[in-house]
Amino acid sequence: MRKILLLLIISSISLFSQWSEQTTGIPFTIFSLSAVNDNIVWASASGANILRTTNGGELWENVGANVPPPMGVEPCIFAIDANTAIFSCYAGSPTRVAYVYKTTNAGASWTLVFTQGSNAYISGIWIKNNGEGFMVGWPVGGRWSLWKTTNSGNNWDSTGLYIAESNSAVWSFENSVFYLNNQIWFGARSKGVYYSSNNGASWVLQDLTAGGYPYPSAIWFDSPTNGFSSADRNIVKTTNSGSNWSIMPGSSGPEIIRGITGTGNSWWYVRFLSNQIFYSSNGGQNWAAQYTAPGNAGYNHITKGRSGSSKLWAARIDGGISVYTGELGVNQISSEVPVEFSLSQNYPNPFNPITKLKFQMPNSGFVILKVFDALGKEVQVLVNQQLSPGTYEVDFVGSDLPSGVYYYRLEVNTPRSDKLEHPSLEGNFTQTKKMVLIK
């Protein structure tokens, strides 16, 4: 009876999940996805195929035709905005050469911004809003290929970035890199996760052997401390920036994990050669297949927008892309820069069982939005991530809670910087409001 009940639960999750298929126009393997927000997404695929959408995937445009040769396999891409993206590729035999190209005009033309020989392979790129970026490649000449940029990828420099590695069996998986504030993580096959708290000036190897053979083939953080990776085909989680990693129950599988993303309590991952997308609604404590794609082609990557995202995209080895339009954290409803911080009264209020919480940010900052009961006990974390200036909205669902008074508190930490949109508003902002659930 318990097995039947479990099957019914999993079936209902898949049935009511809001996944759908999008048309890309290509039958080739998509290696990498990068989403700026709910509308702007770029993807890199084998051959001269670079995909771009500005309407959430309703229309995918192939803008790879103008990339100058040589053009080989494109393992990773990073989208900066609707017109600007940067991707890596490699070509050549028997000696492999890595190339990195950038466009600032939506793919009408591409500029070569980096090249490296001696069997180089650039596997991960991440660029922050201020133009600072990090790029990781497989070890070359006895050291990891690590590079930084301060101008959104126009120039790359390896000065001060050094990790020795002479073992050819140690390398990094595509997209297995994450850059947040001054913190950088990247996966090292057979070793663990390399972590820097100071923009790459020094590194610590975070051990994953407790989870089996270290296989950090995917990585994603939704805060400076909370993140997920993989080890020996398991999902592992950290709540202290990676000082410790714990295996998540029910996450073991036969193939490597090719992508993981999420925020708050909602997380998703995909496996190579599997046509299913797996989901956890409680911060990784339990997992179930949420969606099964048509056909048998396996997924290769999954991601969400870096700013105010309510959508997910997952790419497969047959050129297919699945999109999720269900509830996913916070949604940016306006990118216009407000003049002050504010937390609005929830609407409707009283509510049953769903209400909307809205807030405004004049500066970029790390945002925490939590709900508490009348006794001050934390009920749910709705937002726990870095956000850019704008107006945001998030749904709070009280289906599993009793009627009563609840409080929601917004905390924003804005770092001191001369690049703030409103320097006079730097520092921390905190505000709390009351709402009532009536059933």
Q: What can be said about this structure in brief?
A:
The protein has 439 residues and is mainly β. It is built from 1 helix and 35 strands.
What would you say this structure looks like, in words?
The chain has 439 residues and is mainly β. The chain has two domains: 13-328, Methylamine Dehydrogenase, Chain H; 332-437, Immunoglobulin-like, CATH 2.60.40. The protein is 3% helix and 47% strand. The chain contains one helix and 35 strands. The protein has one helix spanning 2-16; strands spanning 19-22, 30-35, 41-45, 49-53, 61-62, 73-79, 85-91, 97-103, 111-116, 122-127, 133-140, 143-149, 177-180, 183-188, 192-196, 204-207, 219-221, 227-231, 234-238, 246-247, 257-263, 266-271, 276-280, 288-292, 299-304, 312-316, 321-324, 331-334, 342-343, 354-361, 365-373, 378-387, 390-397, 404-414, 427-437. The strands form nine sheets. It has a four-stranded antiparallel beta sheet with strand order 1-27-26-25, with no helix packed on it. A four-stranded antiparallel beta sheet has the order 2-3-4-5, with no helix packed on it. A hairpin with a 4-residue loop joins strand 26 and strand 27 (321-324). The two termini are 32 Å apart. The relative contact order is 0.10. The model is unreliable at 1-16 (pLDDT under 50).
